[in-house]
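W.,

You were right to be curious about this one. When I first looked at the sequence I had no strong expectations either way, so I just let the prediction run and decided to look at it fresh. Below is the sequence, 210 residues in total, followed by the output.
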Amino acid sequence: MRFLTVAMAIAIFALCGCSSETNTAKNTAKSAISKTKDAVKSGSNSAKSAVAGLINGRTKDPNVLATEVFNAFKSKDLSKFSQCIINNRNQSEFEAMVNTVELTAEQKATTLGFVYRTLNSWSQNNNALTGSFFNNLLKKGESQYGINWANSELKNIQVDVVPVNDFQLKQTVYQMHIDFVSNGKEHQLKIPTAYNLQNGILIGGAEILR
């Protein structure tokens, strides 16, 4: 589980956290924060209509993505969930994001090295880690929280922009809380990190809070 938690943190809209930080990197990070906040403000507040915003399985609206994640659990659809989470197929998008920040060759190599290892971990052996991660959350919801996914009903989505400082890099990411009801009881899914990539937002993992 620790590995899964570590795997969820990836440097997007990065800014070097060490003393060699440049003005260009600072400005890039500020721009990223502004764009991410603007995207949250412009996101749909209607969870029921959110799925209409999908284009080729991707979206720039965090509310739409959160709804898709919930629907994947509700229908126990691994294929749908796999379209919402980071994967090797998104490597070029991560590279594009890292390339927007002025980093030394060593810093860039370190960041991209971590990105590649993380994407590979989710993708290798026919996405085995993604499948086991998804199925374990389904079972945990049922056994620990008494969730009946089939009759669960989405109630609310809260999207926040949060700063993250990890691996000597600063970044801003989306964080989502998904409230739903099953068998008359309130439950919540949390998406700790979701990355605003070139072709749409993708999550880095999920957890059940209650």
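Here's what jumped out at me. The chain is about 45% helix and 25% strand. And, maybe more interesting for your project: The CA atoms of residues 157 and 178 lie 5 Å apart.

Coffee later to discuss?

I.
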